[in-house]
Design brief:
mainly alpha, about 140 residues
Length: about 140
């Protein structure tokens, strides 16, 4: 019974994490158009900081903890699909760190990237998510 509860917690955390991972770069796209120091820019800074600190980071931590618990309880650590999934989750975590760095740059009015850059960056979590979901559901190896 505990396995199902942990799995439910894991899915909830993943949904929250992915929502933040998809929304943060989109906020940055719009933030690029706001002049530094403007009320609009300051609002984006608050939105980005709160999304990162109150939703994305806690959701990532819960996702990792619950995921490791599931892998341990399910005896999945010997499975090849899990090894590949963990590589993709590490890449997602690296993207999270990258987003955190960009939030910091915007907070200091030090962004040097274009809206197009953030539009492209917005696709990275999507591609990683597709791979992760396929591995978890299909378990191809």
């Amino acid at each position: 019974m505990a396995y199902e509860w942990i799995k439910a917690l894991h899915v909830i955390a993943i949904i929250s994490w992915m929502a933040a991972m998809l929304y943060l770069p989109r906020l940055m796209v719009y933030h690029c158009a706001a002049p530094a120091g403007s009320p609009q820019s300051e609002t984006f800074k608050v939105m980005e900081r709160r999304l990162l600190r109150a939703i994305a980071t806690p959701a990532m931590v819960v996702s990792w903890v619950a995921g490791i618990a599931l892998a341990w309880q399910g005896g999945w650590f010997a499975s090849g699909w899990l090894h590949v999934k963990l590589v993709l989750v590490l890449a997602m975590s690296a993207m999270h760190g990258q987003l955190a760095m960009w939030v910091g740059q915007f907070a200091r009015d030090a962004n040097t990237r274009s809206a197009r850059f953030y539009r492209i960056a917005n696709e990275v979590p999507t591609v990683l998510m597709i791979g992760i979901v396929i591995l978890v559901i299909v378990k191809p190896f």
